[in-house]
Amino acid sequence: MKIEVLSTGCRKCQTLYENAQTALAACGKGGEVIKVEGVAALLEHGVLSPPALVIDGELKVSGKLLSADEIQRML
């Protein structure tokens, strides 16, 4: 499983990244969490409002800070 946090480097983006790591560890599935910073990555996925969460190449959420529990339910 590949989880990407698309980010501009803001505090909300960092928190989403940390929450994604926590969620992946809690669900017990293998995978990785990657923080991707930069406007190009955001535009590639059509994101206008960061942070954004992409799971296995599919944009799940943008512009919202999810808790670890909310992310875990998506996994």
Overview of this protein structure:
The protein has one domain: Glutaredoxin. The chain is built from 3 helices and 4 strands, in the order βαβαββα. It has helices at about 10-25, 40-45, 70-75, and strands at about 1-5, 30-35, 50-55, 60. The protein has a 4-stranded mixed β-sheet. It is α+β, with helices and mostly antiparallel strands and about 80 residues long.
Number of helices: 3
Give the fraction of residues assigned to helices: 40-55%
CATH-derived architecture: 3-Layer(aba) Sandwich
Overall SS class = alpha+beta
- Our count of domains comes out at 1
Shape call: globular
CATH class: Alpha Beta
- Report the CATH topology name: Glutaredoxin
The CATH homologous superfamily corresponds to Glutaredoxin
In N-to-C order, the SSE pattern is: EHEHEEH
What is Rg? 11 Å
Please state how the strands of the largest beta sheet are arranged side by side. Answer: 2-1-3-4
Number of strands: 4
The proportion of residues in beta strands is 25-35%
